[in-house]
Amino acid sequence: MPLFGNIFSPKKTPPRKSASLSNLHTLDRSTREIELGLEYGSPVMNIGGQSLKFEEGHWIAESGGNVSGKEVQRLKKRNLQLEEENNLLRLKIEVLLDMLSESTAETHLIQKELEDVRSNSRRKK
């Protein structure tokens, strides 16, 4: 029997209360904005002097940017070329993988036939 009792056994913790006593989480977004004034607006960021705004799932350059229309057209054309090249390379990879699969299957068949021939020749001896 310990002298001071069992001081190392932890006591039971009391049950936790509800995570939130507020009912604000049950309100829809527009009601919360009206009640609490939570109007954040669209996210905006500046990169290299260019201001970009996120609207309807896309980043849109705001006016006042230093990129000309010609530069945008050139970049769009280059992007299209790179996408086409990427698609061509993916197709080439797919063809090469098919060729590799076919040659691997043929190699396995040849190895199997060779093993069968060897085992048959050993049985005959």
UniProtKB/TrEMBL annotation:
Keyword field contains Glycoprotein: no
Keywords: Coiled coil
Pfam families: Chibby (PF14645)
CDD domains: Cby_like
Renumbered residue ranges of the record's region Disordered: 1-21
Coiled-coil region(s): 72-99
Protein name: Chibby homolog 1
Species whose genome carries this gene: Cirrhinus molitorella
